[in-house]
Amino acid sequence: MKPLTEKDGVRILEYRLKDGVASQFLFSTLPEVSPSSAIRSVKGRLQHQIRKQVPKAFKENYSIKSVGSAKLDVVQHYLDTQFEHHPMADPEVQARFGKYQIDNP
Q1: Which helix (H) or strand (E) covers residue 28, if one does?
Q2: Which tens digits make up the pLDDT trace of 58-98?
Q3: Which helix (H) or strand (E) holds 53?
Q4: H/E segment holding residue 33
Protein backbone atom coordinates (compact mmCIF):
# COMPACT_ATOMS: atom_id res chain seq x y z
CA MET A 1 0.00 0.00 0.00
CA LYS A 2 2.91 2.39 0.67
CA PRO A 3 3.87 2.76 -3.01
CA LEU A 4 0.25 3.57 -3.85
CA THR A 5 -0.19 6.32 -1.27
CA GLU A 6 3.20 7.78 -2.19
CA LYS A 7 1.76 8.45 -5.66
CA ASP A 8 -0.69 10.71 -3.80
CA GLY A 9 2.09 12.51 -1.89
CA VAL A 10 1.50 10.53 1.33
CA ARG A 11 4.22 8.41 2.93
CA ILE A 12 3.03 5.89 5.55
CA LEU A 13 5.62 5.69 8.32
CA GLU A 14 3.80 3.44 10.81
CA TYR A 15 0.50 1.58 11.15
CA ARG A 16 -1.26 -0.19 13.97
CA LEU A 17 -4.71 -1.60 14.63
CA LYS A 18 -5.89 -0.39 18.03
CA ASP A 19 -8.32 -2.57 20.00
CA GLY A 20 -9.13 -4.47 16.81
CA VAL A 21 -11.31 -1.64 15.51
CA ALA A 22 -9.32 1.57 15.01
CA SER A 23 -6.66 1.94 12.34
CA GLN A 24 -3.92 4.36 13.34
CA PHE A 25 -1.44 5.70 10.81
CA LEU A 26 1.61 7.88 11.20
CA PHE A 27 2.33 9.49 7.86
CA SER A 28 4.09 12.41 6.28
CA THR A 29 2.91 14.36 3.28
CA LEU A 30 4.21 16.70 0.65
CA PRO A 31 3.49 20.34 1.55
CA GLU A 32 0.75 20.68 -1.06
CA VAL A 33 -1.28 17.69 0.24
CA SER A 34 -4.18 18.79 2.42
CA PRO A 35 -5.07 16.80 5.55
CA SER A 36 -8.36 15.65 4.03
CA SER A 37 -6.58 14.52 0.83
CA ALA A 38 -4.09 12.51 2.89
CA ILE A 39 -6.91 10.79 4.78
CA ARG A 40 -8.78 10.12 1.53
CA SER A 41 -5.66 8.52 0.05
CA VAL A 42 -4.92 6.26 3.02
CA LYS A 43 -8.52 5.18 3.67
CA GLY A 44 -9.30 4.78 -0.01
CA ARG A 45 -6.21 2.71 -0.82
CA LEU A 46 -6.68 0.46 2.22
CA GLN A 47 -10.41 0.01 1.56
CA HIS A 48 -9.62 -0.99 -2.02
CA GLN A 49 -7.23 -3.69 -0.77
CA ILE A 50 -9.57 -5.22 1.81
CA ARG A 51 -12.99 -4.63 0.23
CA LYS A 52 -13.64 -8.34 -0.41
CA GLN A 53 -13.09 -9.27 3.24
CA VAL A 54 -14.57 -6.11 4.77
CA PRO A 55 -16.87 -4.26 2.35
CA LYS A 56 -17.42 -1.27 4.68
CA ALA A 57 -14.19 -1.11 6.67
CA PHE A 58 -14.28 2.60 7.43
CA LYS A 59 -16.73 5.15 8.71
CA GLU A 60 -16.66 8.70 7.40
CA ASN A 61 -15.17 10.19 10.56
CA TYR A 62 -11.48 10.55 11.34
CA SER A 63 -9.14 12.30 13.71
CA ILE A 64 -5.89 13.87 12.62
CA LYS A 65 -3.12 15.32 14.76
CA SER A 66 0.17 16.96 13.86
CA VAL A 67 3.34 15.59 15.41
CA GLY A 68 5.82 17.51 13.30
CA SER A 69 7.47 20.81 13.84
CA ALA A 70 7.43 23.96 11.79
CA LYS A 71 8.93 27.34 12.37
CA LEU A 72 6.43 30.04 13.27
CA ASP A 73 7.53 32.27 10.38
CA VAL A 74 6.91 29.44 7.88
CA VAL A 75 3.41 28.82 9.23
CA GLN A 76 2.66 32.56 9.32
CA HIS A 77 3.77 32.95 5.69
CA TYR A 78 1.54 30.04 4.68
CA LEU A 79 -1.47 31.61 6.41
CA ASP A 80 -0.71 35.05 4.98
CA THR A 81 -0.73 33.77 1.39
CA GLN A 82 -3.94 31.76 1.56
CA PHE A 83 -6.19 34.72 0.76
CA GLU A 84 -4.52 35.26 -2.62
CA HIS A 85 -3.95 31.56 -3.22
CA HIS A 86 -7.64 30.64 -2.83
CA PRO A 87 -9.63 33.61 -4.15
CA MET A 88 -13.42 33.78 -4.00
CA ALA A 89 -15.36 33.19 -7.22
CA ASP A 90 -17.17 36.52 -6.86
CA PRO A 91 -14.80 39.53 -7.13
CA GLU A 92 -17.07 41.61 -4.86
CA VAL A 93 -16.83 38.99 -2.11
CA GLN A 94 -13.06 38.86 -2.60
CA ALA A 95 -12.84 42.64 -2.20
CA ARG A 96 -15.07 42.58 0.89
CA PHE A 97 -12.97 39.86 2.53
CA GLY A 98 -9.82 41.74 1.57
CA LYS A 99 -10.86 44.57 3.89
CA TYR A 100 -10.64 42.15 6.80
CA GLN A 101 -7.34 40.55 5.83
CA ILE A 102 -4.86 40.96 8.68
CA ASP A 103 -1.32 41.85 7.69
CA ASN A 104 0.98 40.56 10.40
CA PRO A 105 4.52 41.65 9.44
Answers
A1: strand 22-29
A2: 777 777 887 777 777 777 787 777 777 778 888 888 888 88
A3: none
A4: none
DSSP-assigned letters across all residues of 57-87: ---S-----------HHHHHHHHHHHHHHS-
Alpha carbon of 96 to those of 17, 34, 48, 82, 92: distances in Å?
47, 26, 44, 16, 6
| The dihedral sign for the CA sequence 63, 6, 28, 15 | positive
Length of the chain: 105
Give CA–CA dist 86/60, Å, rounded.
26
Distance CA(41)–CA(1), nearest Å, equals 10
